[in-house]
Amino acid sequence: MGIILILGFISLLAMTYIFISVKIDEKKHPYDALEKKIKEIENNKLTDKVLDYHVSGELSYEANFIDGVQQGKCQHLYHTGQISTEGYYKDGYRDGEWTEWQRNGNLKAKRIYKDGLEVDSTIWDDSDDSLL
Q1: 3-state SS, residue 33
Q2: Three-state DSSP class for 5?
Q3: Does residue 69 sit in helix, strand or coil?
Q4: For 68-99, how does the pLDDT look when each residue is reduced to its tens digit (9 = 90+)?
Q5: How far is the CA of 105 from the CAs of 1, 22, 64, 130, in angstroms?
Q6: d(Cα 2, Cα 51) in Å, to the nearest integer?
């Protein structure tokens, strides 16, 4: 019973953090500039590098598009500049190995994709770096 209460409290804290983060982001960006930029690239079949930034100014997202389709390396970064997720797109779909890191730099997950579908994954426990 105690563990359920603790997990519920942690979930509530996480949701509060996300809500506050979104509200802060909305103040700086009244519309989703990243989504707008990606739609423009896709609709006009452009070739471009897409960058997005945290409210504090640090890079948060980097991706490449060729003829309106996401291709190549894609990264999501924490506000510290540390990579949170990294992988590759092929013809607009996740392809190959995607790696996720925790904020402390430890591995969180490795997932293998083929044509956008996850075909394998390895997940690490947050508390002691052991495999789940």
Answers
A1: helix
A2: helix
A3: strand
A4: 899 999 999 999 999 999 999 999 999 999 99
A5: 32, 24, 25, 14
A6: 44
pLDDT per residue as tens digits for the range 17-54: 444 444 444 444 434 677 888 888 888 888 888 888 88
Q: Are 74 and 86 in contact (CB under 8 A)?
A: yes
Query: Which residue has tokens 């044509």?
Result: 115
- Cβ contact 61:77 at 8 Å: yes
Of 56, 50, 106, give the one whose Cα is nearest residue 81.
Answer: 56
Query: Measured between alpha carbons, how far is 20 from 111 in angstroms, rounded to an integer?
Result: 29
Amino acid letter, residue 78 = Y
Contact by Cβ (8 Å): 48, 35: no
- Please state, in angstroms and rounded to a whole number, the distance separating the CA atoms of residues 56 and 54: 5
Q: Is the pTM of this model over 0.85?
A: no
